[in-house]
Specification:
Layout (H helix, E strand, L loop, with lengths): L15 E2 L10 E2 L15 E4 L24 H12 L3 E7 L5 E7 L21 E3 L5 E3 L6 E5 L11 H15 L3 E7 L15 E11 L2 E12 L2 E7 L11 E2 L2 E2 L3 H18 L12 E5 L5 H10 L9 E6 L7 E3 L13 H4 E3 L13 E4 H8 L2 E4 L2 H6 L10 H6 L4 E3 L27 H14 L9 E5 L8 H11 L5 E6 L3 H13 L4 E5 L3 H10 L2 E4 L9 H7 L3 E5 L2 H6 L17 E3 L4 H17 L1 H12 L5 H17 L6
Parallel strand pairs: 8-9, 8-15, 9-12, 15-16, 16-20, 20-21, 22-23, 22-25, 23-24, 25-26, 26-27
Antiparallel strand pairs: 1-2, 3-4, 4-5, 6-7, 10-11, 11-12, 13-14, 17-19, 18-19
Helix pairs in contact: 2-17, 3-4, 4-6, 9-12, 10-15, 13-16
Bound molecules: adenosine-5'-diphosphate-glucose.
Adenosine-5'-diphosphate-glucose binds next to helix 2, strand 23 and helix 12.
Length: about 650
């Protein structure tokens, strides 16, 4: 068997190298796994000796996490194993066009295949399969290898709706037959939340990434749960107090670096991690979420496809929030490890009015812009928002660019996790109820009033707000309207964290309005369930809202939303019309516009008077909301349509 040793570096600067030995060998990606790659007499088989291939099981196949940061380092561990263990052949699986679509492990004896080889990326014609309980589940007619790249995924990490979506949509897609991997950071902040990652095992594989003027080593942890490969990128910069993006001093100054690492690692993961025994391969579909993952399509275009790697992969940028774009000074471009000629993709020049001083040239790099320029398709989390971002009012400076990509821009309304958010079984709430039997809801209201120390008044309209205390959520409007809201006979409960001036305001309001107002400062999931169940009305005066999840949770819990008519709120909340359907009414809440204190107060007052004076109309509102279908399965089917479109077109940048 001829052998060929390949250097073990993955370099952001020079990614591909050509082997220097004396026979024809096509360019091989430089990968560092302590691997010995061998040309064999089998068709394109590579011999790989590393810690992770020897495990190969679904639960992580190897390490227990204890070797991270071990003084000997991973190479020592690998070398030791090389002595003891024979190593497997890694056979490349290719499709008709010659694209590598996966690898499978073959015993060195040559005749003992240890795992089933991957079928073609798209397995056609599968309609139904049987799960463990024998229940028939709907399956996609074409299945893909899907790689989510995200800065958060519940229950591992969550600061808002992005975490919800990236915790649920992958599971829904997995259940429909797709092979799904989610790549996100392994955040450790020294709190009880660290245990969220305790089932994720160290795969024992590391890669070296050259960027930001140095060499960075990242490791991969893995948990297979609910049909999804959850892959966590491990690096010291993800281990610090605070939330994923910052702490009490504000956003971390090195977020560009932290998320560039995530993107590099995510580009490598499908190629090098044989999860369950075989890799995802090159012909995969990257779903890159928000700016944190935005360098993935840029890397595919600038660093992989020019060398024939990922030429059959596609990328879809999913925009959850256009107001965060990952903008940093232009001088940081060289840190990213991108070729100079790609500067234009990320180039961003602030308009004159946004510059700090006369000498400020306004030059910057904008990661989200780079993703919009290079992704094969673009999705937003509601149809309404996909239109809004092409307007000057909603485009945050990117409207013209987004308009230029309208032909590949779509909106799909988020689903919700209907198991976690189910009033008939929710473990966090005092009493269970459903559209057929609403009686438990008032028990939830009484329990919430008791828990928060409010007067127990089942008939008093209880209004709630849950969300980040952020300009986006219209928190300033709530503050300015609160004295007038509380003139009426209502109670108001708020849960949120964010801008400290609003946190302090919430605390102060509790003192002034002891009998009417409670403000819970912080992030607390059980309380968010109890507020959703216990309130009669949920107020969402968001300035813009790409989708919004709380109004969906509220409707499922028979809590009637009053929302600003924008983005996903306008798409999902149907304005109440008491005269429709022969007087039995239609609609699920109230939408108000324009965004002003006056129109919000009018909508709230109509809602509270309907609650008091038209009980049957109110029950109709509750029931119609509870019966809406916002399951992820519904959304997943629409994603599949976009996946197909992505593969119909050639790569946008090849
Ligand atoms: N203090 C607190 N305690 C407990 N839970 C809290 C909380 N504050 C917020 N949450 C929870 O965080 C989630 C926030 O959902 P949103 O849809 O409002 O998302 P967000 O604006 O963060 O995300 C963006 O992405 C999502 C997903 O695509 C879009 O729906 C949205 O419009 C867009 O702005 C909900 O599950 C909510 O219950």
């Amino acid at each position: 068997m001829e052998s060929l040793q390949v250097t073990r570096l993955l370099s952001c600067k020079s990614f591909i190298h050509t082997a220097k030995v004396g026979y024809n060998f096509r360019p091989v990606r430089q990968v560092r796994f302590g691997c010995l790659w061998k040309k064999t007499n089998k068709n394109d088989c590579l011999m790989i000796r590393s810690s992770f291939v020897n495990g190969g099981d679904r639960e992580g196949g190897g390490g227990d996490g204890s070797d991270v940061g071990s003084p000997e380092g991973p190479a020592a561990v690998e070398d030791e194993r090389e002595e003891k263990e024979p190593g497997f052949l890694l056979g490349a699986e290719k499709d008709g066009s010659g694209s590598v679509i996966g690898f499978h492990l073959i015993h060195p004896s040559g005749d003992d295949e240890v795992v089933e080889s991957i079928k073609d990326i798209a397995s056609y014609g599968v309609e139904k399969s049987e799960d463990i309980e024998g229940e028939k589940k709907a399956q996609a007619d074409v299945c893909y290898n899907v790689v989510f790249v995200t800065s958060e995924a519940a229950p591992y990490s969550k600061t808002g709706g992005l975490g919800d979506v990236c915790g649920s949509l992958p599971v829904a897609l997995g259940a429909r037959g797709h092979r799904v991997m989610v790549v996100s950071p392994r955040y450790l902040n020294g709190t009880a939340a660290d245990k969220n990652f305790s089932n994720a095992k160290n795969l024992g594989s590391r890669i070296k990434i050259y960027c930001f003027g140095g060499e960075q080593e990242v490791a991969f942890f893995h948990e297979y749960r609910e049909g999804v490969d959850w892959v966590f990128v491990d690096h010291p910069s993800y281990h610090r107090p605070g939330n994923p993006y910052g702490d009490s001093n504000g956003a971390f100054g090195d977020n560009q670096f932290r998320y560039a690492l995530l993107c590099y690692a995510a580009c490598e993961a499908p190629l090098v991690l044989p999860l369950g025994g075989f890799t995802y391969g090159e012909k995969c579909l990257f779903l890159v979420n928000d700016w944190h993952a935005g360098l993935v399509p840029v890397f595919l275009a600038a660093k992989y496809r020019p060398y024939g790697v990922y030429k059959d992969a596609r990328s879809i940028l999913v925009i959850h929030n256009l107001s965060h774009q990952g903008v940093e000074p232009a001088t940081t471009y060289e840190n990213l490890g991108l070729p100079t000629q790609w500067y234009g993709a990320l180039e961003w020049v602030f308009p004159n009015w946004a510059r700090a001083h006369a000498l400020d040239t306004g030059e910057a790099v904008n990661v989200l812009k780079g993703a919009i320029v290079t992704a094969d398709r673009i999705l937003t989390v509601s149809k309404g928002y996909s239109w809004e971002i092409t307007t000057i009012e909603g485009g945050y400076g990117l409207d013209e660019l987004l308009s230029s990509r309208k032909s590949v821009l779509n909106g799909i309304t988020n689903g919700i996790d209907v198991t976690e958010w189910d009033p008939s079984s929710d473990e966090h709430i005092a009493s269970h109820y459903s559209a057929d039997d609403l009686s438990g809801k008032v028990q939830c209201k009484i329990a919430l009033q008791k828990e928060l120390g409010l007067p127990v008044r089942p008939d008093c309209p209880l209004i709630g707000f849950i969300g980040r205390l952020d300009y986006q959520k219209g928190i300033d409007l709530i503050r300015s309207a609160m004295p007038e809201i509380l003139q009426d006979d209502v109670q108001f409960v708020m849960l949120g964290s964010g801008d400290t001036q609003y946190e302090n305001w919430m605390r102060a309001m509790e003192v002034i309005y002891r009998d009417k107002y409670r403000g819970w400062v912080g992030f607390n999931v059980p309380i968010s369930h109890r507020i959703t169940a216990g309130c009669d009305i949920l107020l969402m005066p968001s300035r813009f809202e790409p989708c919004g999840l709380n109004q969906l949770y509220a409707m499922r819990y028979g809590t009637v939303p009053v929302v600003h008519a924008t983005g996903g709120l306008r798409d999902t909340v149907e304005n109440f019309n008491p005269y429709a359907q022969g007087g039995s009414g239609e609609g699920t809440g109230w939408t108000f516009s324009p965004l002003s204190k006056e129109s919000m107060l009018i909508a709230l007052r109509i809602a509270t008077s309907t609650y008091r004076e038209h009980k049957s109309s109110w029950e109709g509102l509750m029931r119609r909301g509870m019966e809406k279908d916002y399951t992820w399965e519904n959304a997943a089917k629409q994603y599949e349509q976009v996946f197909k479109w992505a593969f119909v077109d050639p790569p946008y940048i090849s």
